[in-house]
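Residues and backbone
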Amino acid sequence: MVTASRSVNVVEIRLELRGGNADLWDAREPEILVEGPRGTGKTLTIEHLLNQLCHAFSGLQVIILRKYAVTLASTCLKTFNEQVLKPGDGVAFFGGSGDEPASYRYPNGSRITVGGLDNPKARDKMLSAEYDIAYINEITELTEDDLIAIKATLRHAKPDGTPIIEHRRVLADCNPANRGNWVNLRCERGQMRRIKTTLRDNPRFANPDGTWTVEG
């Protein structure tokens, strides 16, 4: 079990990380897949990690993507807004414009750009920018070519050319994929690290000793 904490102004967030979610927190590979059924806490853990990194590294550029923008807003970003962002963080949401995609802006210059790949114009705009970390929500909705294009954007650096964060990486999550799915095959080839999560990794559903909570 790993416990992580972060303080920003008067806001303190504590996370209890177990199993696959704890492994995710410490993972540094270029491509990382977090796989598990709904309710394991994988998406929430990824979002807490991205939020903490944005506060810790000034000017960090992150992108959160899904195949369809409308689905992203009603699932992944709903969790981010309601369970990750806290009053006092100083994070402001920008709804986007004709020249710039929607994003969460941090006081230290960090930014999380968000969007779907279903709009060709928005896709081109997002994938022409430079990022440090990319998070693909429900990666099985995308193609392998999509992943390669997203990975190519991980070239953001300081003005002197040095990276803002040591380990640029693609984070992705999904429910267990069928054996022939390209994501599964990429993991089997060793190109992507697979981290599995279970319901016992979520403190809502299981106690530290592995027994189920009332809700679990």
